[in-house]
Amino acid sequence: MSKCKTSAEVGGMGHSVKRKEDARFIRGQGTYVDDIVRPGMVFMDIVRSPYAHAKIKSINAEKALALPGVAAVITGETLKEYNLHMMPTLMSDTQMVLPIDKVCYQAQEVAAVIATDRYSAADGVELVEVEYEPLPVVVDPHKATDPDAPIIRDDKEGQTSNHIWHWENGDKEGTEEVFQSSDVVIKQKIYLPRIHVASIETCGCVSEFDKANGKLTVWMTTQAPHAVRTVLALVAGHVGLQEDKIRIISPDIGGGFGGKVPIYPGYVIAIAASVVTGLPIKWIEDRRENLQADSFARDYHMDCEIAADKDGTLKGLRIKTLADNGYADAAANPSKYPAGMFSICTGSYDFKKAFVEVDGVYTNKPPGGVAYRCSFRVTEAVHAIERMVDLVADEIMMDAAELRMKNFIPKEAFPYKSPTGWEYDSGDYHTALQLAMDNVGYDELLKEQKEKREKGEFMGIGICSFTEVVGAGPSKDFDILGIKMFDSSEIRIHPTGKAIARFGTKSQGQGHETTYAQIIAEELGIPYTDISVEEGDTDTAPYGLGTYASRSTPTAGAAAAMACRKIKAKAQKIAAHLLEAAEEDLEWEVGKFSVKGVPEKSVTIQEIAFAAYTNHPQGLEAGLEATHYYDPPNLTFPFGSYIAVVDIDSETGEVKIRRFMAVDDCGNIINPMIVEGQIHGGLAQGLAPALFEEISYDDEGNIHGGSFMEYLVPTAVETPHWETDKTTTPSPHHPLGAKGVGESPTVGAPPAIVNAVVDALSHLGVKHIDIPMTPEKVWRAIHKQDAA
Amino acid sequence: MASRSITVTINGEARTSDVEDRLLLVHLIRDNFALTGTHIGCDTTHCGACTILLDGKAVKSCTVFAVQANGRDVTTIEGMEGEALHPLQEGFVEEHGLQCGFCTPGMIMSSKHLLDKNSSPSEDEIRWGISGNLCRCTGYQNIVKAVQYASNKLQEIDNEGGE
Amino acid sequence: MIPGSFDYHAPSSLDEAIELLGKLGEDAKILAGGHSLIPMMKLRLAEPTHLVDINGLSDLNYIKEQDGYLCIGAMTTESDLETSDLILEKYPILKDTSEVIADPLVRNLATVGGNIAHGDPANDHPATMVALNAEIVVNGPAGLLGGGKRTIPIDEFFVGPLTTALAENEILTEIRVPSSNGKSGASYIKLERKVGDYAIAGAAAALHFDGDICSKAGIALTNVGPTPVRATQAQDALVGTTITQEDAEKAGELAAAASHPVGDHRGSEEYKRAVVKVLTTRAILKAKSRAGGEK
Fold this sequence. Notes:
The complex is a heterotrimer. By secondary structure, chain A is of the alpha+beta class. Chain A is built from 18 helices and 34 strands. Chain C has helices spanning about 15-25, 35-40, 80, 85-90, 90-100, 105, 110-115, 125-130, 155, 230-240, 245-260, 270-290; strands spanning about 5-10, 30, 50-55, 65, 70-75, 135-140, 150-155, 160, 165, 170-180, 185-190, 200-210, 215-220, 230. In chain C, the strands form four sheets. A five-stranded antiparallel β-sheet of chain C has the order 4-5-10-6-7. A four-stranded antiparallel β-sheet of chain C has the order 11-12-13-14, sandwiched between helices. Chain C has a three-stranded parallel β-sheet with strand order 1-3-2, covered by helices on one side. The longest helix of chain C has 23 residues, at about 270-290.
């Protein structure tokens, strides 16, 4: 581990400085969307469908409108007048803002009530009368493409089935040959059920249209404010909104995790209503609306096959996946990647051949797919490979760690081209796994397990050695709705040596106000406490694609470094002028330039900043600032090895996590305290789907898991104590050698836990358990009964 | 709607408002009294983001009617800082016990009551004590450390006070 | 999350409260801790037009031993019960029970009386009170049929799901548990998916011993029937034995057979029965060890 280049006072990379943003949050002075109050503001609440698929026969708002306090009721017909009843999704599909003919999922928005206060709006919703004619429902994606399945998207021209797209990657024939020539072939179906990220703050907006200026301002729970602004300009340009007159403000956000990337119908209805009425409109969804209608994650049915030789050499991988998309393709993937980064599924292993195919289908459920800290389907990919590797280990009776070590891509092989076309930038998988094993006392645990087994007690050890892929992404491959996935930083140094920096990303708890300041502190030597960081206001921030998929450090963090280097280049010119020396004769030490060999002849960055406004060299522009739009040359590939130790109560099926050791490598670290916090949080969001969370639907499309009564978010009691450690393998192409990290733990934790539980029961012949591993599922696996 | 006048002493200040009988205490605090540090995170009394102290006891203000608080004492996150930050507030910063900050006021108010009842709780007791408050960002570990920090600091202050 | 409208009343005496309930009829509901009622009102599953807040009746908040009974005032909060020294020392089964109800914040307001009066077989106190052979004291209007106060044996109190023997204008005011005398021990064990959830199943065991022989047993189950289930055959099977591991397991099986679980997302019928067996066995053995002096 290298020593920090800067002092603790400057607070550059490697320092665990306390967060600047905390000051307002601990005082309850954060500004979240529901805290915003505008003069004359009214409230919006939404009428939602109880049916998963039904024709709308009539909507009667008479009783609602008769209620004092209710000002208006908006339906699809109202919006149709402005051609705003439909909108594009981020995957270039279409979805309804408000329906005209039919609803396609339970809890779909059907009408909106505008009232003077929250309580009247809620009362109004109860009084809107909607007459439905239920239609047959498609819930099982396997049946979605049956010849007699009702066509859900009959509104789309040429749509004759519920199949959306087919995507494939890899060498189909070559992989088949490998399978034919391998000693061992194992097949396993793995289902990752639908889950919901359930950030503690739900979604909402305050939309205000200033008629005099023609300017629309929307405070919104969004992780990508610029993308929202551009989409609105494209979608609502015909009603007079143009991009210079749209301001999206993403204030403090109470957790995003991907759930605040999509543009939900509620936002669009509120925006349309605020433009039409001229009144500021607040819409805040409640938790049930959030769970039942907002973007979900996972819902991948994976048929996995792995081929290996009996000496443990992994040879080939084949996965065929059915993706349940809900009624519209609205997952916020980069446009060329309908299955996200799923093809990273060869993982940390040197497979020669692989073939992956995914088919997306429509069902009568809310749309979405990548809204739970998943790095665009990497959670699915890693779950698949880490389970399959354990199945091989079990089959050939080789230790799970040994099998991994045997097949890891060696350190020397990086940059490594995977059989599905990824170029992994750097990695050292052997060291990470060894460190995890040493920390946890792997050999002693194996001994203990043997002893316990003889006494009839169930204890398991599970490993997950994942490779992640984050930092979308290079412009040649990555765009969302055509907008390339660069990101940006704009930095201005003031005369008194303080700085302001703005970014195209948007923190929802990741600590950017501190970490970006630390990057600038590292590059320029200005103390991080002297650097103000702003994000989220499209009027002032440079254009960016927002924060999700662990992309901020890889893209905007890099942009900050590059902008600093532009500033430093100009600073050098000013320093040369001040020191009356030639530029080439100067050398840089953190925070100052001095003449080579004459250290007393130096000038600080603060002095340079002052001179930029008071004594700049002739021929050079005044000021000291730079903007950089960073187009990453590649993604970054953080990785890690996690080991979970579980004890199982065989009589009830309860799983207790005794220990969880997480070794992560995200390259060079900006703030170790913040990285550790991200790991803790991500591990908890990996534990949750592994043991507790699931959203499911009955045959009529009725949701189960639509409130916190049934959607089980773990408390501090269910969450174990996390043990963390790290290795550091910098990214060779990132200006700071840094990689993203926020989603590594959600990717790595579930397979480690599943592998541990299956390991605990493997002597009974248990091969696999789908998550969530509820006590009953584990109990049944032990007592070998079929599911009820 | 009929309304009645209620007076609640909130963070030491008596404040009066005309309210419907059905107004939830959390809305009184946030909307009528414009103290928006107390948050709403669910609709089934699970998440605890709305936790405040009612006559010194930590309760979920989304599941109490404002009229029930008439004549009583309410403490919210805005009332925690005196001349200096409360050790809990300090602890959350020092131990990185918050990320997005949305659950934080509720966590701090719950922890305040916990420490009032038990000045040196074990890790298990802290986890049990905050089991009515959900967090999605931190994985709880640093929240536990923040409460331990505060417990130590408060005991230090107590000991100094006794001298 | 916004409840419907209602009129709020805050009587300051028991008589006033009873009179109000009589006057307002079936559209009125009692507001005690409010943490069963208010969540239902916020979902508009309950829409009473009147709420009678009995939190002003502070003389209903007590825990004391009197005349051979442990007497708990109906308005005693769960957190007061959980932290009572008397309960910890002599009736730890009640701490077992209260500490698994919801979460610590809910317990600061939720009342023991409310947990019982709600009549929900998923609540935890009902099974414990059945196992302890408690009595429920109820106040109603004085007049025709007596002094306005009656005592209902626990086995007559729970009539059906969310239905108890309480009349519309009666208020549950006290719970009486026969004081433990002689060698006895009791325990409540709940299996829940996470803190704050209702039970997958719960088992309460209250045992009395004559020397080493079990002389009396109360076994009751949570959330596996329309009311708390008294496992009579399991009780009978323990009496006269020294309660070995085998005896406890046998009683567990009988308790499982006596339960009527409904398959839902907390578990299938089969799984819940298996859980009843396990929890009953464990509760019996824990009760026995407490009778032997362990905590």
